[in-house]
Design brief:
The chain is α+β, with helices and mostly antiparallel strands and about 650 residues long. The protein is about 25% helix and about 25% strand. It has a nine-stranded mixed sheet with strand order 5-4-3-10-2-1-11-13-12. Strands 14-15-18-16-17 form a five-stranded mixed sheet, covered by helices on one side. The protein is elongated.
């Protein structure tokens, strides 16, 4: 038999370090939970050890499960073997190193492991820690002196350790006692006085409140039936919150108390409302997708112990991988941005099996991501296209309902706000006339119920030379106790007086018409200054039948087939609206500006000039051949709808 390749003692520490760096925050919690489940535990708890806090004031994290436990021989193999340790070995397995590589590095002072089995009810324990000799790093078991025979052993029965102030025998939990078996891991950190209850400080785990429970509930889709997993969180005051498992206390050396909240892990799917619609179907590559659609936005950040928002993820053996939550993640599936807070998508690709030619996925060694057979990238584009083209009807109906609700007043307000920004850049020429109450005003009127700064109806005010009513004060200016100044409706018999002013939000509005007047049917747009709507400075009418618009709509719809055609058309319309309205407004801004000098007196821009510049012929020329419009549509569509269809 030939020589078998192995890893040197010196190399093991560096393999552990490398695997640790490839992992993610709270990876150790995942590994411990999986180990407990594989050990057939019914109870797995992530607790805070009370003895060390009472004796030394140190808060240490422990993990206890009532699984099958380890004998003195097994416990040594498990902790000292990098690979194996009694776990299945294979490409799709855990390689027997997940727990060790995820927690050794942030516990160089050591990890104490105590275990009890039905064959060894007295239990056994070891203490593994990091040592440096001759400049090289090793992980080794601590030696203990056995008083009975004055020997030195590295696996002993649990006893009191003065340097950390903990009787290891008392780490046995009630659940382990009742089952007659189980294992406890106690994390010692970097020194005897290191707090480890919040996790790995080097990865910033200590800065995230409830980080462990949130991680578990996000990483695991479901906790297996029959398994109770719970996490203890230290609170600085005694209080009970909804969802806590139970309430305990920790006593410090000075007698002060800390509150312990126990929170049960449920898995990500438990945070989906019971009222959510749900279903599933097959995508490309033999991948199934389960979808869950809530009736309203679900944003739980800071309120629960689970995922903050819905997400898209891959499922593998009950765990969540490749979690996606951003607008850019949802758009390729044909979903508008608002749906990222309402819709969960759980994709389950086929598992890779060694020796079979079928395509499948398997977890990377650190369990941080999924890989596919042959090293090819995961086929996200195919999954996205497959979902968008076969979108379930309930989701389609919800999208249609949302677009319908978004397409009138909200759309109108959004467009108006956008155009107001254009108006601000083109000065104050385009303000509608309003009658504003003023102590020196001479136009009579009645209170309209509105104030300056609010949207209001355009008022064509007159200025009759009315006397001021007797008893009115020259300095009177009633604001009715609200912000802004009162607006009046002109009324010759009114008892309040105001001055004529122009509002800052007077800008042209827009209308897309199916039919243009017969004599203007060949034009793209026309401006009607007399057509004032809700205080607008006239209306720009666009011709929906104009060939340019029809071809533009279809072109951009074809570029983004996953986006709703209505959304694409509205985006294109908006860009052309901005272009034409800015031209109309700028033309009027030039009113009265000198054109050229004629015998000393300049010829100025007059109404006839402006009418020519804003005529249907001129506005039609305005929309033709606009490279900047194409560029702007491209940028806006890319940010809203994601990537274009590949050419």
């Amino acid at each position: 038999m030939g020589s078998i390749a192995s890893v040197s003692q010196e190399g093991t520490a560096y393999l552990i370090r490398q695997a640790y760096e490839a992992g993610e925050k709270w990876q150790w919690a995942r590994e411990a939970l999986v180990n407990g489940i594989q050990a057939q535990a019914t109870s797995i708890e992530f607790g805070v050890e009370p003895q060390g806090f009472k004796s030394k004031g140190v808060l240490r994290r422990y993990i206890a499960d009532n699984g099958i436990g380890m004998s003195p021989e097994d416990i040594k193999i498990f902790l000292m073997s990098f690979g194996g340790g009694g776990r299945p070995i294979g490409l799709t397995q855990n390689f027997g190193q997940g727990f060790k590589s995820s927690c050794y590095e942030w516990n160089p002072y050591g990890i104490i492991v105590a275990s009890w089995t039905k064959d060894y009810p007295e239990g056994c324990m070891i203490w593994i820690h990091r040592r440096t000799r001759a400049g090289k790093i090793y992980w080794e078991l601590k030696d203990f002196e056995v008083e009975e025979d004055a020997s030195v052993e590295d696996v002993v029965a649990p006893f009191y350790l003065d340097e950390i102030g903990v009787d290891v025998a008392k780490l046995k939990t009630k659940e382990i006692e009742e089952a007659g078996q189980g294992t406890v891991f106690l994390f010692l950190g970097k020194s005897p006085d290191d707090d480890t209850h919040r996790g790995d400080v080097d990865r910033g785990e200590d800065n995230v409140k409830r980080g462990i429970i949130i991680y578990i509930n996000s990483r695991f889709l479901e906790i297996p039936q029959g398994v109770t997993a719970r996490v203890a969180e230290v609170e600085d005051r005694a209080r009970r919150e909804p969802g806590t498992w139970q309430k305990d206390s920790l006593e410090s050396p000075t007698g002060s108390l800390l509150s312990i909240d126990w929170r049960r892990a449920r898995g990500a799917l438990a945070y989906i409302p019971d009222t959510a619609q749900r279903g599933g179907f097959m995508l490309k590559h033999d991948t199934s997708v389960d979808w869950y659609l809530a009736g309203e936005d679900i944003v739980t950040r800071g309120q629960t112990d689970g995922p903050a928002t819905p997400h898209i993820c891959l499922a593998y053996e009950g765990e969540s991988y490749e979690r996606k939550t951003t607008v850019r993640d949802y758009r390729p599936f044909g979903l508008i941005e608002e749906f990222r807070n309402r819709l969960w998508l759980v994709l389950t690709p086929p598992k890779y099996e060694e020796g079979r030619p079928d395509w499948g996925v398997f977890p990377q060694g650190s369990r941080g991501q999924l890989l596919s057979k042959g090293g090819t990238p995961l086929p996200w584009a195919d999954w996205e296209d497959s979902f968008a083209l076969n979108m379930p009807k309930p989701i389609q109906d919800a999208l249609a309902e949302f677009r319908k609700s978004r397409s009138s007043p909200a759309d109108s307000t959004e467009r108006r706000e956008r155009l107001k920004r254009i108006a601000a850049r083109l000065a104050t020429r385009f303000r509608p006339v309003n009658l504003i109450e003023h102590s020196l005003g001479r136009t009579a009127g009645n209170d309209s119920g509105s104030r300056t700064g609010e949207p209001r109806v355009h008022v064509k005010a007159k200025r009759p030379n009315h006397p001021r009513p007797s008893g009115s004060s020259p300095g009177r200016q009633d604001t009715g106790g609200a912000g802004g100044t009162a607006l009046l409706n002109e009324d010759r018999s009114g008892e309040r007086f105001g001055a004529v002013r122009r509002s800052s939000d007077g800008i042209p509005t827009t209308s897309w018409d199916n039919h243009f007047p017969e004599d203007e049917g060949a034009h793209a747009a026309r401006f009607d200054k007399a057509d004032c709507v809700d205080g607008s400075y006239g209306t720009v009418h666009f011709n929906l039948s104009f060939p340019l618009f029809k071809s533009e709509f279809q072109y951009w719809i074809d570029q983004y087939p996953k986006a709703a055609s209505e959304d694409v058309v509205n985006l294109v319309k908006g860009v052309y609206e901005d272009e034409v309205i800015s031209k109309v407004m700028h033309a009027h801004k030039l009113s009265g500006q000198p054109l050229y000098a004629a015998e000393g007196d300049p010829v100025r821009v007059n109404n006839a000039n402006i009418d020519n510049w804003t005529s249907p012929e001129a506005l039609t020329a305005t929309v033709l051949g606009l490279i900047n419009v194409e560029q702007r549509i491209n940028v806006l569509a890319g940010s809203r709808f994601g990537k274009k269809k590949p050419t």
